[in-house]
Amino acid sequence: MERTTIDLWVGVFVAAGAAALFGLALKVGNFNSATLGETYSVTGAFENVGSLKPRAPVKSAGVVVGRVDNIKFDPESYEALVTVKVDKRYPFPKDTFANIYTAGLLGEQYIGLEAGGDDKMLQDGDKFSKTQDAVVLEKMIGQFLYSKASESGDDKSNDIKEAE
Amino acid sequence: MFSAVASVLSGIGHRVIDSLWRFGASIRFFFYVLIYSGESFRRLHLTIREIYFTGVLSLIIILVSAFFVGMVLALQGYNTLQRYGSSEAIGVLVALSLVRELGPVVTALLFAGRAGTAITAEIGLMRATEQLSAMEMMAVSPVARVVAPRFWAGVFSMPLLAALFSMVGVLGGYLVAVPLIGVDAGAFWSQMQASVDFREDIVNGVIKSVVFGVACTMIALFEGFDAPPTAEGVSRATTRTVVNSSLAVLGLDFVMTSFMIVA
User: Fold this and answer.
1) Which of A114, B47, B89, B101 is the 20 to 30 Å CA partner of B160?
2) Exposure b/e, B206-234, CB count within 10 A at least 16 = b
3) ipTM value > 0.90
4) Domain-by-domain residue ranges, chain A?
Protein backbone atom coordinates (compact mmCIF):
# COMPACT_ATOMS: atom_id res chain seq x y z
CA MET A 1 0.00 0.00 0.00
CA GLU A 2 1.41 3.36 -0.93
CA ARG A 3 1.92 5.89 1.79
CA THR A 4 -0.22 8.61 0.22
CA THR A 5 -3.13 6.18 -0.13
CA ILE A 6 -2.81 5.20 3.51
CA ASP A 7 -2.70 8.87 4.49
CA LEU A 8 -5.81 9.52 2.45
CA TRP A 9 -7.76 6.67 4.01
CA VAL A 10 -6.68 7.59 7.52
CA GLY A 11 -7.73 11.17 6.78
CA VAL A 12 -11.13 9.96 5.62
CA PHE A 13 -11.45 7.77 8.72
CA VAL A 14 -10.53 10.57 11.13
CA ALA A 15 -12.83 13.04 9.39
CA ALA A 16 -15.71 10.56 9.46
CA GLY A 17 -15.08 9.80 13.13
CA ALA A 18 -14.99 13.47 14.04
CA ALA A 19 -18.14 14.06 11.99
CA ALA A 20 -19.86 11.21 13.83
CA LEU A 21 -18.91 12.75 17.18
CA PHE A 22 -20.26 16.13 16.07
CA GLY A 23 -23.36 14.45 14.72
CA LEU A 24 -23.93 12.69 18.03
CA ALA A 25 -23.46 15.92 19.94
CA LEU A 26 -25.74 18.00 17.72
CA LYS A 27 -28.32 15.62 16.28
CA VAL A 28 -28.65 12.98 19.01
CA GLY A 29 -27.64 14.95 22.09
CA ASN A 30 -28.81 18.31 23.36
CA PHE A 31 -25.51 20.12 22.90
CA ASN A 32 -26.94 22.90 20.73
CA SER A 33 -29.85 23.59 23.04
CA ALA A 34 -27.57 23.48 26.09
CA THR A 35 -25.88 26.68 25.01
CA LEU A 36 -28.43 29.41 25.31
CA GLY A 37 -26.18 32.38 24.92
CA GLU A 38 -26.68 35.33 27.28
CA THR A 39 -29.02 34.47 30.13
CA TYR A 40 -30.45 36.00 33.28
CA SER A 41 -31.32 33.88 36.30
CA VAL A 42 -34.57 34.06 38.23
CA THR A 43 -35.40 32.10 41.38
CA GLY A 44 -38.74 30.64 42.34
CA ALA A 45 -39.88 28.98 45.57
CA PHE A 46 -42.02 25.87 45.19
CA GLU A 47 -43.59 23.75 47.91
CA ASN A 48 -43.09 20.66 45.79
CA VAL A 49 -41.02 20.34 42.62
CA GLY A 50 -41.95 16.71 41.96
CA SER A 51 -39.28 15.11 39.82
CA LEU A 52 -38.05 18.32 38.22
CA LYS A 53 -34.34 18.02 37.45
CA PRO A 54 -31.57 20.50 36.73
CA ARG A 55 -31.28 21.19 32.97
CA ALA A 56 -35.01 20.61 32.50
CA PRO A 57 -36.45 22.99 29.91
CA VAL A 58 -38.18 26.26 30.78
CA LYS A 59 -40.94 26.86 28.28
CA SER A 60 -43.29 29.68 27.52
CA ALA A 61 -46.14 29.05 25.10
CA GLY A 62 -44.45 25.73 24.37
CA VAL A 63 -41.18 27.29 23.22
CA VAL A 64 -37.99 26.59 25.15
CA VAL A 65 -36.79 29.93 26.55
CA GLY A 66 -34.37 28.67 29.20
CA ARG A 67 -33.22 25.85 31.42
CA VAL A 68 -33.38 24.96 35.09
CA ASP A 69 -29.99 25.80 36.57
CA ASN A 70 -30.18 24.27 40.03
CA ILE A 71 -32.66 23.13 42.66
CA LYS A 72 -31.96 23.70 46.35
CA PHE A 73 -33.87 23.05 49.55
CA ASP A 74 -34.44 26.05 51.79
CA PRO A 75 -34.28 24.81 55.41
CA GLU A 76 -35.99 27.96 56.74
CA SER A 77 -39.15 27.99 54.67
CA TYR A 78 -39.05 24.23 53.90
CA GLU A 79 -39.48 25.04 50.24
CA ALA A 80 -37.55 24.16 47.13
CA LEU A 81 -35.66 27.04 45.54
CA VAL A 82 -35.41 26.57 41.80
CA THR A 83 -33.07 28.81 39.85
CA VAL A 84 -33.79 29.02 36.15
CA LYS A 85 -31.71 30.66 33.45
CA VAL A 86 -33.76 32.45 30.85
CA ASP A 87 -32.43 33.67 27.53
CA LYS A 88 -31.73 37.44 27.53
CA ARG A 89 -33.69 37.78 24.31
CA TYR A 90 -36.90 36.95 26.15
CA PRO A 91 -37.73 39.44 28.92
CA PHE A 92 -40.68 38.54 31.14
CA PRO A 93 -42.85 40.85 33.28
CA LYS A 94 -42.38 40.94 37.06
CA ASP A 95 -45.63 39.10 37.77
CA THR A 96 -44.89 36.14 35.53
CA PHE A 97 -46.47 32.91 36.73
CA ALA A 98 -44.08 29.93 37.05
CA ASN A 99 -45.76 26.51 36.91
CA ILE A 100 -44.31 23.03 36.99
CA TYR A 101 -45.93 21.00 34.26
CA THR A 102 -45.52 17.45 33.05
CA ALA A 103 -44.98 16.71 29.37
CA GLY A 104 -47.56 14.06 28.64
CA LEU A 105 -48.99 11.82 31.31
CA LEU A 106 -45.73 10.33 32.50
CA GLY A 107 -43.20 12.50 30.67
CA GLU A 108 -40.47 14.71 32.02
CA GLN A 109 -41.32 17.78 34.06
CA TYR A 110 -40.59 21.29 32.92
CA ILE A 111 -41.29 24.83 34.05
CA GLY A 112 -43.92 26.75 32.16
CA LEU A 113 -43.87 30.56 32.29
CA GLU A 114 -47.07 32.50 31.82
CA ALA A 115 -46.42 36.17 31.28
CA GLY A 116 -48.30 38.63 33.48
CA GLY A 117 -49.19 42.21 32.74
CA ASP A 118 -46.63 44.15 34.75
CA ASP A 119 -44.74 46.98 33.06
CA LYS A 120 -41.51 46.18 34.90
CA MET A 121 -39.47 43.28 33.61
CA LEU A 122 -37.73 40.54 35.61
CA GLN A 123 -34.07 41.32 36.24
CA ASP A 124 -31.13 39.02 36.94
CA GLY A 125 -31.46 37.64 40.50
CA ASP A 126 -35.19 38.37 40.86
CA LYS A 127 -37.80 36.00 42.30
CA PHE A 128 -40.98 34.71 40.77
CA SER A 129 -43.81 36.06 42.91
CA LYS A 130 -46.35 33.49 41.77
CA THR A 131 -45.56 29.81 41.52
CA GLN A 132 -47.56 26.64 41.19
CA ASP A 133 -46.28 23.28 42.40
CA ALA A 134 -45.91 20.08 40.51
CA VAL A 135 -48.94 17.87 40.43
CA VAL A 136 -48.24 14.77 42.49
CA LEU A 137 -50.22 11.93 41.04
CA GLU A 138 -50.65 10.09 44.35
CA LYS A 139 -52.03 13.21 46.03
CA MET A 140 -54.46 13.77 43.20
CA ILE A 141 -55.69 10.18 43.29
CA GLY A 142 -55.94 10.40 47.08
CA GLN A 143 -58.07 13.56 46.88
CA PHE A 144 -60.20 12.02 44.17
CA LEU A 145 -60.84 8.89 46.24
CA TYR A 146 -61.53 11.00 49.32
CA SER A 147 -64.08 13.16 47.53
CA LYS A 148 -65.71 10.09 45.96
CA ALA A 149 -65.92 8.42 49.34
CA SER A 150 -67.50 11.47 50.97
CA GLU A 151 -69.96 11.79 48.05
CA SER A 152 -71.12 8.20 48.34
CA GLY A 153 -71.26 8.67 52.12
CA ASP A 154 -73.65 11.60 51.58
CA ASP A 155 -75.71 9.52 49.16
CA LYS A 156 -76.09 6.82 51.75
CA SER A 157 -77.21 9.19 54.45
CA ASN A 158 -79.72 10.66 51.97
CA ASP A 159 -80.96 7.17 51.20
CA ILE A 160 -81.44 6.49 54.86
CA LYS A 161 -83.32 9.77 55.30
CA GLU A 162 -85.54 9.00 52.33
CA ALA A 163 -86.25 5.54 53.72
CA GLU A 164 -87.30 7.11 56.99
CA MET B 1 -3.81 -38.81 50.22
CA PHE B 2 -1.63 -36.09 51.67
CA SER B 3 0.54 -35.89 48.59
CA ALA B 4 -2.57 -35.66 46.36
CA VAL B 5 -3.88 -32.67 48.35
CA ALA B 6 -0.44 -31.09 48.28
CA SER B 7 -0.17 -31.48 44.52
CA VAL B 8 -3.64 -29.93 43.99
CA LEU B 9 -2.72 -27.02 46.26
CA SER B 10 0.62 -26.49 44.59
CA GLY B 11 -1.14 -26.59 41.22
CA ILE B 12 -3.44 -23.78 42.34
CA GLY B 13 -0.52 -21.85 43.79
CA HIS B 14 1.45 -22.25 40.59
CA ARG B 15 -1.41 -20.89 38.49
CA VAL B 16 -2.02 -17.95 40.82
CA ILE B 17 1.68 -17.02 40.89
CA ASP B 18 1.89 -17.43 37.14
CA SER B 19 -1.10 -15.21 36.42
CA LEU B 20 0.06 -12.61 38.95
CA TRP B 21 3.49 -12.61 37.33
CA ARG B 22 1.95 -12.11 33.90
CA PHE B 23 -0.27 -9.35 35.22
CA GLY B 24 2.70 -7.55 36.75
CA ALA B 25 4.70 -8.03 33.58
CA SER B 26 1.89 -6.57 31.49
CA ILE B 27 1.72 -3.49 33.74
CA ARG B 28 5.49 -3.02 33.43
CA PHE B 29 5.15 -3.49 29.68
CA PHE B 30 2.45 -0.79 29.67
CA PHE B 31 4.81 1.70 31.31
CA TYR B 32 7.61 0.73 28.92
CA VAL B 33 5.29 1.52 26.03
CA LEU B 34 4.40 4.90 27.57
CA ILE B 35 8.07 5.75 28.12
CA TYR B 36 9.07 4.73 24.59
CA SER B 37 6.08 6.30 22.85
CA GLY B 38 7.96 9.49 21.93
CA GLU B 39 9.10 7.76 18.75
CA SER B 40 5.54 7.12 17.60
CA PHE B 41 4.82 10.86 17.63
CA ARG B 42 8.16 11.97 16.20
CA ARG B 43 7.76 9.56 13.29
CA LEU B 44 4.05 10.01 12.91
CA HIS B 45 3.80 8.04 9.67
CA LEU B 46 4.44 4.84 11.67
CA THR B 47 1.38 5.57 13.78
CA ILE B 48 -0.71 6.66 10.79
CA ARG B 49 0.12 3.39 9.07
CA GLU B 50 -1.11 1.49 12.09
CA ILE B 51 -4.26 3.62 12.29
CA TYR B 52 -4.92 2.44 8.76
CA PHE B 53 -4.54 -1.21 9.73
CA THR B 54 -6.43 -1.07 13.02
CA GLY B 55 -8.97 1.68 12.38
CA VAL B 56 -9.72 1.98 8.68
CA LEU B 57 -9.72 -1.75 7.99
CA SER B 58 -12.09 -2.32 10.95
CA LEU B 59 -14.56 0.18 9.54
CA ILE B 60 -16.58 -2.24 7.42
CA ILE B 61 -17.33 -4.75 10.17
CA ILE B 62 -18.03 -1.95 12.67
CA LEU B 63 -20.39 -0.04 10.38
CA VAL B 64 -22.31 -3.08 9.18
CA SER B 65 -22.72 -4.40 12.73
CA ALA B 66 -23.78 -0.96 13.94
CA PHE B 67 -26.43 -0.73 11.26
CA PHE B 68 -27.92 -4.09 12.16
CA VAL B 69 -27.65 -3.49 15.91
CA GLY B 70 -29.55 -0.21 15.50
CA MET B 71 -32.25 -1.81 13.38
CA VAL B 72 -32.73 -4.71 15.79
CA LEU B 73 -32.85 -2.32 18.75
CA ALA B 74 -35.60 -0.34 17.05
CA LEU B 75 -37.64 -3.46 16.23
CA GLN B 76 -37.32 -4.96 19.69
CA GLY B 77 -37.78 -1.64 21.46
CA TYR B 78 -40.89 -0.82 19.47
CA ASN B 79 -42.36 -4.20 20.27
CA THR B 80 -42.08 -3.55 24.00
CA LEU B 81 -42.75 0.20 24.04
CA GLN B 82 -45.99 0.03 22.07
CA ARG B 83 -47.51 -2.08 24.86
CA TYR B 84 -47.18 0.95 27.10
CA GLY B 85 -48.37 3.31 24.41
CA SER B 86 -45.09 5.20 24.21
CA SER B 87 -43.71 4.10 20.88
CA GLU B 88 -42.40 7.65 20.28
CA ALA B 89 -39.79 6.97 22.96
CA ILE B 90 -38.13 4.54 20.54
CA GLY B 91 -35.59 7.21 19.56
CA VAL B 92 -34.58 7.69 23.20
CA LEU B 93 -34.23 3.97 23.70
CA VAL B 94 -32.10 3.43 20.60
CA ALA B 95 -29.90 6.48 21.16
CA LEU B 96 -29.29 5.94 24.87
CA SER B 97 -28.52 2.25 24.58
CA LEU B 98 -26.15 2.91 21.69
CA VAL B 99 -24.36 5.95 23.05
CA ARG B 100 -24.04 4.73 26.62
CA GLU B 101 -23.42 1.01 26.26
CA LEU B 102 -23.60 -0.77 22.95
CA GLY B 103 -21.48 1.70 20.99
CA PRO B 104 -18.36 1.48 23.15
CA VAL B 105 -18.78 -2.17 24.22
CA VAL B 106 -19.68 -3.82 20.92
CA THR B 107 -17.05 -1.74 19.13
CA ALA B 108 -14.44 -2.90 21.63
CA LEU B 109 -15.48 -6.54 21.28
CA LEU B 110 -15.38 -6.35 17.48
CA PHE B 111 -12.11 -4.42 17.65
CA ALA B 112 -10.57 -7.14 19.82
CA GLY B 113 -11.65 -9.75 17.30
CA ARG B 114 -10.73 -7.83 14.17
CA ALA B 115 -7.68 -5.72 15.07
CA GLY B 116 -6.48 -7.20 18.37
CA THR B 117 -5.92 -10.66 16.93
CA ALA B 118 -4.07 -9.18 13.97
CA ILE B 119 -1.77 -7.24 16.29
CA THR B 120 -1.06 -10.30 18.45
CA ALA B 121 -0.39 -12.58 15.50
CA GLU B 122 1.82 -10.02 13.79
CA ILE B 123 3.97 -9.28 16.83
CA GLY B 124 4.03 -12.95 17.86
CA LEU B 125 5.30 -13.92 14.43
CA MET B 126 7.82 -11.08 14.48
CA ARG B 127 9.16 -12.57 17.69
CA ALA B 128 9.04 -16.14 16.34
CA THR B 129 10.95 -15.16 13.21
CA GLU B 130 13.40 -13.15 15.36
CA GLN B 131 12.65 -9.85 13.67
CA LEU B 132 12.40 -8.21 17.10
CA SER B 133 15.81 -9.60 18.10
CA ALA B 134 17.23 -8.31 14.84
CA MET B 135 15.94 -4.84 15.68
CA GLU B 136 17.55 -5.01 19.10
CA MET B 137 20.82 -6.00 17.41
CA MET B 138 20.61 -2.82 15.34
CA ALA B 139 20.02 -0.82 18.54
CA VAL B 140 16.42 -0.13 17.50
CA SER B 141 14.06 -0.60 20.41
CA PRO B 142 11.24 -2.89 19.23
CA VAL B 143 8.95 -1.35 21.85
CA ALA B 144 9.48 2.09 20.37
CA ARG B 145 9.47 1.01 16.72
CA VAL B 146 6.78 -1.71 16.68
CA VAL B 147 4.71 -1.64 19.85
CA ALA B 148 4.17 2.04 20.71
CA PRO B 149 2.78 3.10 17.27
CA ARG B 150 0.27 0.24 17.40
CA PHE B 151 -0.71 1.21 20.93
CA TRP B 152 -1.42 4.84 20.09
CA ALA B 153 -3.16 3.87 16.87
CA GLY B 154 -5.52 1.61 18.81
CA VAL B 155 -6.18 4.20 21.51
CA PHE B 156 -6.87 6.82 18.86
CA SER B 157 -9.04 4.64 16.62
CA MET B 158 -11.35 3.23 19.27
CA PRO B 159 -13.30 6.40 20.20
CA LEU B 160 -13.70 7.28 16.52
CA LEU B 161 -14.95 3.79 15.73
CA ALA B 162 -17.33 3.90 18.71
CA ALA B 163 -18.71 7.29 17.64
CA LEU B 164 -19.25 5.98 14.11
CA PHE B 165 -20.91 2.89 15.55
CA SER B 166 -23.35 4.96 17.61
CA MET B 167 -24.14 7.31 14.74
CA VAL B 168 -24.71 4.55 12.19
CA GLY B 169 -26.71 2.59 14.78
CA VAL B 170 -28.99 5.58 15.35
CA LEU B 171 -29.43 5.88 11.57
CA GLY B 172 -30.32 2.18 11.39
CA GLY B 173 -32.80 2.63 14.21
CA TYR B 174 -34.26 5.66 12.43
CA LEU B 175 -34.71 3.70 9.19
CA VAL B 176 -36.63 0.95 10.98
CA ALA B 177 -38.63 3.20 13.29
CA VAL B 178 -39.69 5.96 10.92
CA PRO B 179 -40.11 4.68 7.34
CA LEU B 180 -40.75 1.03 8.24
CA ILE B 181 -42.86 1.16 11.41
CA GLY B 182 -44.23 4.65 10.93
CA VAL B 183 -43.20 6.41 14.14
CA ASP B 184 -43.36 10.19 13.72
CA ALA B 185 -39.96 11.51 12.65
CA GLY B 186 -40.26 14.71 14.66
CA ALA B 187 -41.09 12.85 17.87
CA PHE B 188 -38.26 10.41 17.19
CA TRP B 189 -35.59 13.12 17.02
CA SER B 190 -37.01 15.59 19.53
CA GLN B 191 -37.54 13.02 22.31
CA MET B 192 -34.04 11.74 21.61
CA GLN B 193 -32.55 15.21 21.88
CA ALA B 194 -34.48 15.95 25.03
CA SER B 195 -33.16 12.88 26.83
CA VAL B 196 -29.61 12.40 25.55
CA ASP B 197 -27.29 14.64 27.51
CA PHE B 198 -24.01 15.77 25.98
CA ARG B 199 -21.91 15.52 29.14
CA GLU B 200 -23.67 12.63 30.88
CA ASP B 201 -24.17 10.33 27.92
CA ILE B 202 -22.00 11.21 24.95
CA VAL B 203 -18.84 12.25 26.79
CA ASN B 204 -19.15 9.26 29.13
CA GLY B 205 -19.43 6.99 26.11
CA VAL B 206 -16.26 8.50 24.65
CA ILE B 207 -14.45 8.04 27.99
CA LYS B 208 -15.51 4.40 28.01
CA SER B 209 -14.28 3.81 24.50
CA VAL B 210 -10.89 5.41 25.26
CA VAL B 211 -10.47 3.11 28.27
CA PHE B 212 -11.51 0.10 26.17
CA GLY B 213 -9.05 1.20 23.51
CA VAL B 214 -6.20 1.22 26.03
CA ALA B 215 -7.25 -2.15 27.48
CA CYS B 216 -7.82 -3.99 24.18
CA THR B 217 -4.71 -2.70 22.45
CA MET B 218 -2.55 -3.28 25.49
CA ILE B 219 -3.75 -6.87 25.93
CA ALA B 220 -3.21 -7.60 22.23
CA LEU B 221 0.30 -6.11 22.28
CA PHE B 222 1.34 -7.84 25.48
CA GLU B 223 0.04 -11.23 24.38
CA GLY B 224 1.88 -10.88 21.09
CA PHE B 225 5.10 -9.70 22.71
CA ASP B 226 4.92 -12.44 25.34
CA ALA B 227 3.94 -15.28 22.99
CA PRO B 228 6.19 -18.33 22.91
CA PRO B 229 8.01 -18.25 19.54
CA THR B 230 6.25 -21.27 18.09
CA ALA B 231 3.23 -21.75 15.86
CA GLU B 232 1.27 -23.13 18.79
CA GLY B 233 2.40 -20.31 21.05
CA VAL B 234 1.20 -17.65 18.60
CA SER B 235 -2.15 -19.39 18.10
CA ARG B 236 -2.69 -19.62 21.86
CA ALA B 237 -1.70 -15.99 22.33
CA THR B 238 -4.26 -14.96 19.70
CA THR B 239 -6.98 -16.90 21.49
CA ARG B 240 -5.99 -15.36 24.81
CA THR B 241 -6.16 -11.90 23.26
CA VAL B 242 -9.80 -12.32 22.31
CA VAL B 243 -10.80 -13.98 25.58
CA ASN B 244 -8.93 -11.57 27.85
CA SER B 245 -9.94 -8.44 25.93
CA SER B 246 -13.60 -9.42 25.97
CA LEU B 247 -13.53 -10.15 29.68
CA ALA B 248 -11.60 -6.95 30.39
CA VAL B 249 -14.05 -4.88 28.34
CA LEU B 250 -17.12 -6.32 30.04
CA GLY B 251 -15.61 -6.04 33.52
CA LEU B 252 -14.34 -2.49 32.99
CA ASP B 253 -17.71 -1.56 31.50
CA PHE B 254 -19.50 -2.64 34.66
CA VAL B 255 -17.09 -0.75 36.91
CA MET B 256 -17.24 2.45 34.84
CA THR B 257 -21.01 2.30 34.41
CA SER B 258 -21.54 1.93 38.16
CA PHE B 259 -19.42 5.04 38.73
CA MET B 260 -21.09 7.03 35.94
CA ILE B 261 -24.66 6.14 36.89
CA VAL B 262 -24.22 6.91 40.59
CA ALA B 263 -22.28 10.13 40.04
Assistant:
1) B89
2) bebbbbbbbbbbbbbbbbbbbbeeeeeeb
3) no
4) 1-35, 36-143
